[in-house]
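Notebook B, p. 112. Complex prediction, attempt 2.
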Amino acid sequence: MDSRAQVSIEVALVAGIAILVAVSLVNLNFERLNLARELGEGGEAKMVATLIATSINTVHANGAGFELTLSESKLNFTELTDVDQGTGIILPIIIDNTRRKVIVGRNMSRTGHRGQWNVSVSMVPNNVVRQDPTARYPEVTIRNNGTNVIVYADSSKVRVIP
Amino acid sequence: MSSNRAQVSIEFIILVGALLVMVIAVFPYILKTNELNKALSAARDGATFGAAMRGVGYQSGSVEAPPGRIKIKSVTLERQGRCGSLECYRFRIVVMMPSYYSSNSSYFYSITGTIRNQALRFVYYAFNGDYPPSPIINRVNTTYYSFTATTDVEYY
């Protein structure tokens, strides 16, 4: 019985120290989890900007009549805007003709930021316009009509600055 | 048998007692060292996060710096004396970035500011379990220490 009592004191001592060390590292581990997720999703958001900018450039370079459609499998706004499961993109995505940039904003609340952080990718044309999608040109179709590069998307999702 | 067991238990008592005394004696030192190590790890994480996000091309304010390879070369702690009841330490963060950032001082100040701020935000989180309410933070106080941050830049 004596021996058992001694062992239990040791166990309590070791367990106590282990718990203290483990508890002191909990915040550090959560912080690293947030960091990794934020960086990964930040990269995904930039890929979205790159996809749109590349598509606009392709349509611009191929001349009048060329069009391409970014289907829901490539550009799913529901998934992109989901902060917990998705990428945390804040809509609308901005296409700025003056600066020739596609700008994507991200919700950075996971790392405690209240505002959004923006990332931008350069594009070639400065004659991009937006129109509402139609049956002939579903969301998100990008078309060159010879005068402009037209992005068919809802105004809540894509905004074009002249 | 009984007698042997009693001898062993006395040895255990002496050993455990000695260990207990030693642990209690060094416990405050362990706590303080643990705090410094934790702060340094968190600052390194925060600085890496800030550098990576700015390197990808994200902007936190109005300054839009071009993307580039922004790296954290080292994060060290420098003792700065006492600040009231706390010991003051400063993180010295050495940042490596392409030389084209030196052409525009606003790039330089914006990126190093983000890195310092993120380092201290992560230190704040490590000790408080939440990010600071203010978007910009210049100092973090813990039980024993007060932390600030500075940056050195090396171009390549």
